[in-house]
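One thing: can you check what follows?
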Amino acid sequence: MYEKILLPLDGSDLAQQAIPYAEKLAGRLGSQIKLVHVRDPHEDKYGNMHKFYLQKIADAMKKDTEQYAEEPGRDKIDIESIILAGDPAQEIVDYANKENVDLIVMSTHGRTGITRWALGSVADRVLRATRKPLALIRARNVPPNKFPKNIVNRILVTLDGSEQSEVVLPYVEELASRIKAEVALLHVLEPNYYVYTVGGYNWDAYSEKQRKSMKAFYTDYLKDMAEKFQRRGIPTKYQVIFGIVAEVIIDFPEKIHADFVAMSTHGRSGVSRWVLGSVAERVLRAGNTSLFLIRESGAKTE
C-alpha cells in the first residue's frame, strides 16, 4: 500500500521538517522515497546546485532510515532524487500520477530557501488536485535533526458515519500496524440541526432523549470500527463528542496528544451528513496538528 513515498522539497528549512516523517514511514514500511525538487524553467544555471542539495539530503536520509528498520540487515531504503521544471504544484501532482506514488509527504509551509516557492500555497494546490493520500506536516521552528525518534505515536481518525469518511480506515490500519502507532476514533455530533419553517431554515436543538440515543448509536458504531483495528493488535480507543465539528477536530488532537488527524476530504452522505469536505478545509486552515488526508473516489477535484 505504501511502496512509493514522494517528498517535495524547496530548499527551505521549513520544508525539510517533513523529512523525519518520510524517514520513519519509509523505514517502517520499506517504502522507496522519491525526493522531488521543482525548479523554475529559467534556472538552468543553478542545476548543479539543485542536484548537490538533493544528493546531500538523500545521503543523510539513507543513514537516518536505518534506525526505523524492523529487521536487522534489511536492505537499505532506496532514495531517488528528481529535479523537475515548471509549476511546482502541477509538476508534483503529475509526477505522483506518472510514477504511481502511494503517499505524498510535504510541509504546509516553506517560503525561504534556494528557490523561494511558497510550499504553503503549493501544498494547498496539491491537496485540491491530487487523488493520492497526502500527509501534510505542520512546520515548526525545530531543526529536522532534533525531532524525536517516536515521531508518530497516535493517529486521530474522524468519522461522520458515511462510507465516504470510512475510506481512510484501511490506510490508517496499515500505517498504524506497521509504525506501531495508537489509534483514536472520533465522531462529533452537532448539538443542533436545521429545520425548515415558513421563514426559511432555523436551528433547533435535540432533546435530551435524542442526544442519549444518538450518542449510544455512534458509540456502538465506533466500537465496531475499533474492534477491527484491535484484531490487528492496534491499540484503539473511541469517543463521541457533542460540539461544532470543525472546532472539536481542531482542539481535540492536542487533548489526546495526537500526532496526526486522519480524515477523508469528502463525506456528505451517510447517517450524520456533516460535510467533511468543508470540515477538512477549516481544520486545514485553523488546526495545529499534522493531517493525513484521503480523497474518496467519488469526490471531484477543483
